[in-house]
Amino acid sequence: MIASRHVAALAAAALLSMVILTGGADAACPGALSERVLDLSDARITSFGTMQKLPALPLNAGEYVLTFDDGPRRETTPKILDELRDACLHATFFMIGEHAERRSRIAKLVLEGGHSIGSHSYDHRNLSTLPYDEALDDIKQGVAAVEKAVYGNRMTPVRMFRFPDNAGTPELINAAQQLGLIIASYDISPEDWRNSPPEETMHRLRQRLNATDRGVIVLHDVQDNTVPLVPMVLDELKKRGASIVHLVE
Question: How far apart are CA 2 and CA 129, in angstroms?
Fold first, then answer.
């Protein structure tokens, strides 16, 4: 009971901090994209993301969620955090467990920037190709590694989980949800994992934004070319009159 109250207090404090950060965006970043907070727990959302044939988030027209996979990486993640800070915006970072273990200081920087934290497995294997027990152990190990790297001994749970390559079988999705995890896929990918020149990746993103008026965007904070891509993405969304939704849980 004491631990539960401690976790609840931490969550409330973190959410209050995020609301304050968001509320001050107009003063700190004139002309910035607007941002609102969507609490997945309050909305009782247990899964989302049409790329994995999961329900879409309850977003309004022109609303987009920024997410980053595969980090943290020392050479790129802090630069992306700087871009988001300068734009007064927040994202969700789905960290690979072994990366977070090796770069815990960078992982903590993500939290210190007011961003949300998710797990992206322990070592980014295709979990659908593994024996069920081995895949489930990888999910648990990844969550535990990210929690330890980001929060230390504060007993703050990581609840958002994204399958590598969206490769989650119905059995694994159900098992992860039984662990209390929110399955987080996405709707829009410019395939920046290819590490193409930013202009080429932006061309793909514009085409995919033209096909939808809302959704969860996935980028990868381990790619060198994603660093210059981020301000291009934000400029494009601003031109479209879009706004950002920051996921918390």
Answer: 40
Are the C-beta atoms of residues 22 and 243 closer than 8 Å to each other?
A: no
CB-based burial label for 134 (10 Å; 0-12, 13-18, 19+): exposed
Burial label for 169, CB within 10 Å (0-12, 13-18, 19+), is: middle
Give the per-residue pLDDT at 3.
41
Strands (E), 106-200: 116-119, 160-161, 182-184
Task: Give per-residue pLDDT as tens, 68-116.
Answer: 999 999 999 999 999 999 999 999 999 999 999 999 999 999 999 999 9
Spatial contact of 65 and 216, defined as CB atoms under 8 Å apart = yes
CA dist 191 and 201 (Å) reads 7
- State pTM to two decimals: 0.89
CA separation, residue 160 to residues 75, 118, 149, 202 (Å)? 25, 5, 16, 27
Whole-angstrom distance, CA of residue 161 vs CA of residue 175: 12
